Input
Amino acid sequence: MPGAVVPTVRIQAEDFDVAVEIARMTQGRADIGAVVTFSGLCRDEAGRLAALELEHYPGMAEAEIGRIAAEAVHRWPLQGLTAIHRHGRITPGENIVLVVATSAHRQAAFEAANFLMDYLKSRAPFWKKEHHTDGSQGGWVDAKEADDEAASRWKQAVPKRN
Amino acid sequence: MSTRLIYFAWVRERIGKPQEDVELPAGIETVADLLRWLKSRGEEYEHALQYPDVIRVAINQEHVEHREKISGAREIALFPPMTGG
Output
């Protein structure tokens, strides 16, 4: 039923378990035909990076991802939507972000997950600072223009559902 | 009425504090006015807000444009473009 899906949004320091999050959304249901997950992990940048420090704006981080998730639920016929974003110190190989979208058919789940990630990257109030393995001063990661462009392509791409 | 200003990432580092409560002088009506006023408050603000166009702003935890009016804002956050995900 459109409009009845309430997205789950969590901002946390601790890691998440992808399988647990999928199970949470699918257990006891027989109406879900597609589960799409996206996990974003911390890279080591060819050995250069020791860790990322993720700063966030408490309160607004939840609110903004909640607004983006609500928009996704409005645009696509989803059965469920979960977004989890970590903050604090994260080392290479660790999870940073998770999006899980469930729907009756795959297209809605793929597109909603993609949309959520594109908007999250340019609008969710998080900032990454690099810590280097050689002890040199790391800096704040620069925002990529490509991320803004990725978000803007959704402005025309999908008509809103009524 | 005082307004809480909150800073993040390199804006926070350059200004040298995470937040402060300020009394906005008369005539500060928009976000752009606020940035111009803040920039005149000292070297650290000048350094942080040297290129005001790149500064992103949220009023009461929602993104706004620089032309937005700030009347009634309890909390105004200033930060660089976001790099989450």
Q: What stands out?
A: Residues 31-39 of chain B form the longest helix (9 residues). The longest strand of chain B covers residues 2-7. Chain B is about 25% helix and 25% strand. Residues 2 and 77 of chain B are 14 Å apart (CA to CA).
